[in-house]
Amino acid sequence: MTIGFNIKRLRSQKGITQGELADRSNLGLNMVSKLERDATDPKLSSLYKLMNALECSADDLITDENKSSFQGKMNRLFKRASQLPEDEKEVLMKLIDKYCNAVVYELMLENNRKDG
User: Fold this and answer.
1) Nearest-CA neighbor of 48 among 25, 14, 19?
2) pLDDT, tens digit, for every residue of 36-80?
3) Which CATH superfamily is domain 3-66 in?
4) 10 Å Cβ neighbour count for 60?
5) Domain coordinates of the chain in residue numbers?
6) 8 Å CB contact between 11 and 21
7) Residue 77 three-state SS
8) String of DSSP letters for 11-51
9) pLDDT value, residue 116
């Protein structure tokens, strides 16, 4: 994943157009388009403008999720999940809990089969 991909993903998650991002960041539509297409690399000042406009961290913009550690991926997922509505957070927590319980139960059964 590239900075351009991350910019487009974050923009889409916010439900804003390239034009709206250009307005919010004072970068210009042409620049936003070039950045999303990886036709140019952003200056540090542009990264700060994007971080403010997208309300995200530098990590959100520059991290290649394909090269991230498991913990890094989980941190980003939980950060995204924290922005969900409360009822959706509850559903997600129950889903994670049930999955973890199922895995523990499966491991216990597997160990019993080996011991028995």
Assistant:
1) 25
2) 999 999 999 999 999 999 998 888 898 877 777 888 778 878 888
3) lambda repressor-like DNA-binding domains (1.10.260.40)
4) 19
5) 3-66, 69-115
6) yes
7) helix
8) HHHHT--HHHHHHHHTS-HHHHHHHHTTSSPPPHHHHHHHH
9) 66
